[in-house]
Amino acid sequence: MRKLIVGNWKMNGKPSCLAKPQNFDEIYPSQDRGHLDIVICPPSLLISGMEDICTNANIQIGAQNCHYLDKGAYTGEISVTMLKDFGVKFVILGHSERRAMGETDKEVSLKAIKVVKENLTPIVCVGENLEVRKSGHALKFVSEQIKSSIAGLSKGYVLAYEPIWAIGTGVTASIDDIRKMHINIREIIGPDVKVLYGGSVNKKNATEILQVENVNGVLVGGASLDMIDFALIAKAAG
Ligand code: PEP
Question: Exposed end of the chain (fewer CB within 10 Å): N or C?
Answer without folding.
Answer: C
